[in-house]
Design brief:
By secondary structure, the chain is α+β, with helices and mostly antiparallel strands. It is built from 7 helices and 19 strands. The radius of gyration is 23 Å and the shape is globular.
């Protein structure tokens, strides 16, 4: 059985602390911190609320400073439960977000300055790839892109990114003029890897598996006259019999007709939500051996129906800790139902404020986003 990371119960009394650094300088006056860590292929975001009365009246970091900036300031958010809350070293606290300010909102009535930010992938999203940079082996390509933007690439298994010259040549043709972020994500998906940012590190790694250390949710059914108990503050499950938002399955393979790499997706175009017309699908990518185009489409259709039939989702809120990461499987037990299963996070949101304390909300599903059989 996998190691359980949260086997020890949280202490009865905790003293969580937070810190905000703007361009490397510690800034107080915040009322609430929130960091949204997406799992893979998407940017992390943050939201910070400052009390205007607690900010400098003039000069750096005053409301006027924020509204007059021409270059987005860099921002970092840290949250943790330090062992000595009276002598806190912000540098020793867990960092959950590093990026740039994307938007500011000034509310003079409520006396609030609200800042939202996006992680360090922002520059890669805006930059367009050219043919010259694409003519490299995948690991060298990603390292080159990362270093060009002041990032460090973490690629534990560089050889896993190379899936054959024919596939790479086709990728070069398809990805020219796409954003650098799309290039990196495409290279990772083709080889069964995932992409995410931690600070200034660009991670291109294998997806999580059920054998890794896990975060446990042990549900205990209440007995008459007793309170509900468990490892979480709230717990909800759901399973769709008809997917409204939709799932898209994409299969890539070497064509038996023509000798080039083909890609087929089902459904195509992606299914839209009938209520608001938004696509917003959950994407699953597979790489298969040689197939005919029609067979590839049929395989994608079959896999789509399997995912729709078996995917379960869980949402829970728990006291904030530094153990549950986006790569940490979540194992649910005790419900005596189909929902007792291993889940993989879609997102983890950490929140710290006087009103709510330090809490985290996790959305997870049973199917790994890159369940990639070869």
């Amino acid at each position: 059985m996998a190691t359980i990371l949260n086997s020890a119960p949280p202490p009865a009394a905790r003293t969580p602390r937070g810190a905000v650094l703007v361009n490397g300088t510690l800034l107080g006056g915040w009322l609430s911190l929130e960091v949204h860590n997406n799992t893979f292929f998407e940017a992390d975001t943050c939201k910070i609320e400052f009390a205007i009365s607690a900010l400098p009246v003039m000069g750096d970091y005053s409301p006027n400073w924020w509204t007059s900036q021409q270059t987005p300031p860099q921002i970092e958010v840290r949250m943790d439960c330090p062992p000595d809350p009276q002598h806190v070293d912000p540098g020793a606290m867990a960092s959950w977000f590093l990026g740039v300010v994307e938007r500011i909102e000034l509310d003079p009535v409520r006396r609030l300055l609200t800042i939202t930010g996006r992680d360090m992938s922002y520059a890669l999203v805006e930059a367009v790839a050219d043919q010259k940079i694409l003519n490299q082996r995948p690991a060298a390509l990603i390292n080159s892109i990362a270093s060009s933007y002041g990032l460090t690439a973490n690629i534990p298994n560089p050889d896993s990114l190379y899936v054959g010259k024919a596939s790479q040549d086709d990728a070069v043709k398809q990805l020219a003029k796409h954003s650098l972020w799309e290039v990196i994500c495409s290279v990772a998906k083709r080889s069964g890897n995932v992409v995410y940012m931690t600070g200034k590190t660009l991670n291109v790694v294998a997806p999580p598996t059920s054998s890794q250390p896990c975060w446990a949710v042990n549900w205990t059914e209440p007995i008459s006259g007793t309170k509900v108990s468990g490892d979480v503050l709230s717990l909800k499950f759901d399973r769709d019999f008809q997917i409204a938002k939709g799932v898209t399955v994409t299969v890539e393979c070497h064509s038996l007709q023509g000798g080039h790499t083909i890609t087929r997706s089902y459904p195509h175009p992606p299914k839209k939500d009938p209520y608001n017309g938004v696509t917003g699908t959950r994407d699953y990518f597979y790489r298969k051996p040689k197939m005919k185009p029609a067979d590839a489409l049929e395989w994608a259709k079959s896999q789509y129906h399997q995912i729709v039939a078996h995917e379960l989702r869980v949402e829970f809120e728990a006291v904030g800790d530094s153990l549950l990461l986006r790569t940490t499987p979540v194992v649910v037990t005790g419900t005596a139902s189909y929902f007792d299963a291993t889940y993989y996070p879609d997102s983890i949101t950490r929140h710290l404020s006087m009103e709510r304390g330090y809490v985290m909300t996790c959305h997870a599903k049973t199917a790994s986003i890159l369940d990639n059989p070869q």
